[in-house]
Amino acid sequence: MLIADCGSTWSKILDTGTGELEIVQTREMIRREGVFFEVATGHSAKNRCHVYRNELIALAEGSLALIPDDDFSIVDVGGRDVKFVRFAGRRVVKLDWNLACGSSTGATIELLGSYYDVEFDRLPSTDRWINVTCGVFGMEKVLEHVSTGTPPEEAVAMFLHGMVRNVFDFSGRPGRLYLSGGFCENDCFLQTMGKYCTVTPLGRTVPLEGLKR
Amino acid sequence: MQTNSSHTVIGYYGFPARKVLRAARERFGTDLPLVDLDVAAGAPDAGLLPPATCRIIANIVDNAVHLGSRLAAVVAAVGEDKCDRGRHAAWILRELGMNVIETRFAEEDFEDRPLIFSTGRGPLAARIDRIMATVVDPAPPDDPPEPCRPTHGFWGVPPNDVRILDLFPPTTHLYGWVRCVEAGRPSDLDLECSVDDGVPTVFFHQSFCAKQDLAHRLAEKHRGIAVDCHGEINDSIMAKVEAFIRLS
To answer: Quick one: B137 and B238 in the same domain?
Structure first.
């Protein structure tokens, strides 16, 4: 059985029979002829599955499957949105979903990274930050910093730091935060978030775990 | 708008004091239909308000301008039972030459009507409609819903986009301003902020409405979620509410 989490940028497809996980760019997935999933979630999965699941529910149920704690907070930073759920006694006590702003999303940072050819694996974190109230204005500040002598890598790390602060605030500033999504593979993001709380990356398949339930 | 396109009507918004609404009908015609201007009715944008305006207030102005000369009068709630912007809307409509009758629902006019629809079982949108109809006709219903224990709560005003209400189970209790209307106490802040402990509640407010202050505070206090929406409900708002209802 194929289950999938099809975000706007990346699609995670799991064959539950073989356990094989495929991560492809969504623009490639949607070009595939006849692609159809048994159960799926994510913005790009609608009309491509028998059963569509709400993304927040998939994230919440996936986190319950993976995390043994009674009380915890999890945030999923996606390409175009951020989802957050807080549990107390393994019951949801708060949740939120920001879908309308690029100030905390992966697509913005991918744009910046590719523009300046930055490799996030090697990008050191920085204590300086840009106030990323708005993704577009934040990018303008990066351009301004670069034009006035800040190395592009430092300016991008500053933007990333501003974005981390937004995600931390959005999550209610917990002491410990479980992280889901592509930023689990971004060392600079993890190091920067580590300045604010204990961060535990869970990888990109938390919603898929929720779809299994 | 549910009116014959050529008929004169009386518009109103908010919860006008009953005696003021009654007097307006006696003055302009008891046979004239009453139209609730708060409700989205497909009127074109009158272009008189800035974009960052509560959608309900924009509905009032757009509906009134669209009805134009068909409006015999507008009975406008402008007191604490509505909001500053309701008062401003009345001023704008009067500026446009409309016959505006201001009303403030005084505390001495407070009623203590039973909360039949707020605490009954049934589809949420239909129960809110019945509550709002009591503004014009407060007669007890012939077919009251059976009371139920609340599994969920909806706090707030009637939303501009009522599709959000379809997400709630029939055992959802109503709180906030809607409950105040059913009780006949539209500016009773204590009643507006009363929520049953332990009932997972969605605290809804229109974007750019001052009730957001209450919604956010109450959501924190009662471990609910505050949800706002400007025009039409989008997928992420629907999904957030759906997830909260399912997981709480």
So the answer is: yes
